[in-house]
Amino acid sequence: MNYNKWKCIVCGGDRKKLLYREKRITKSKITPKEAVCTGEIGSRGRHGKIWKCDTCGFVCQDFTFSENELNNAYKGGTDEIYFEQYKEREHLFEKCLDRIHQHIKPPGKMLDIGCNAGIFLNTARRMGWKTEGIEPSSWAARVARERFELKVRTGIFEKTRYKPGTYDVITSWDVLEHFVDPVMVLDKIHKLLKKDGVLVLSTIDINSWFSLVLGSHWPWLIRVHLWYFTPDTFRRLVENSGFEISWMGPQIRWFSLPYLLTRFTGKNFSWMPTISLPAPTGDIIYLVARKKQSD
Ligand SMILES: [Zn+2]
């Protein structure tokens, strides 16, 4: 019996090679601090075994916790530091919305999965979308509701009921690599979109120059990133769930210099004047896809 036989979720292949050994893994539970978006510097360089599929090159990590434990960590996450980058994040999302509008224009219904404190949804609403979000962190969902008066549910997307064929656009920024079962999530998104609906997803690119140069020191190798995509495996996984890719490319992030220095040195640089810079790492990609039309 092959109860524990590994199977690649992209190509169905059953052979994998060890890419990176596990690092600093203890039996300790996963904490909310390890699960939040901006992460703790201490959670960097800590992960389980990371494998690469022999057939298609898809990369995945051994789970070092249970699904329940992971969901609880997301539920308890707070992330005040997220707002220190408000202007930069809003600027980024305006650019992304300009891109989305080349494929579908407002008005329409938009759902953002893992919407955090709502900076994207707030920007999208301003540009004419009727927005809704879902977010596992009680803190972030509450901030989105109270600070931006957004319609945001607190909950786990996989476990939440929605009416099929409801949305014109479903977005999910930097969340795909966190889902325990991304295939199930993509199938569910497919059902919730209208016939001409558009999916917008971002993820991390393990084939980017930044990842290839840093190797096992790439900062995105952390316990809560369960899957690592290349443009090719990203495309294939999304196509497998019945989508056609309309566009794919890098997402250029902007950072304020004092924020970056504080994050990397652990010292306080908040006295510095804010200077915004594009991060040339190229290791975040996103795509716009449409439901494949059956005839
Ligand atoms: Zn594979």
Descriptive labels:
295 residues, alpha/beta, Rossmann fold, seven-stranded mixed β-sheet, four-stranded antiparallel β-sheet, 24% strand, binds zinc ion
Q: Please, what is the average pLDDT?
A: 90
The low-confidence parts are: none
* Share of helix, binned: 25-40%
Number of contiguous helices: 9
Judging by the overall fold, what is the CATH architecture?
3-Layer(aba) Sandwich
Shape: globular
- Give me the oligomer status: single chain
Q: Can you tell me the number of structural domains?
A: 1
What does this structure look like?
The protein has 295 residues and is of the alpha/beta class. It has one domain (16-291): Vaccinia Virus protein VP39 (Rossmann fold, 3-Layer(aba) Sandwich), CATH 3.40.50. It is 28% helix and 24% strand. It is built from 9 helices and 13 strands. The chain has helices at 32-35, 67-75, 86-100, 119-126, 138-148, 182-192, 209-214, 231-240, 257-265; strands at 16-20, 50-53, 59-61, 109-113, 130-135, 152-154, 167-172, 193-204, 227-228, 243-250, 253-256, 276-279, 284-291. Strands 6-5-4-7-8-13-10 form a 7-stranded mixed beta sheet, with helices on both faces. It has a 4-stranded antiparallel beta sheet with strand order 1-2-3-9, with no helix packed on it. It has a two-stranded antiparallel sheet with strand order 11-12. Strand 7 (167-172), helix 6 (182-192) and strand 8 form a beta-alpha-beta unit. The protein is globular. Zinc ion is lined by residues 8, 10-11, 13, 53, 55-56, 58.
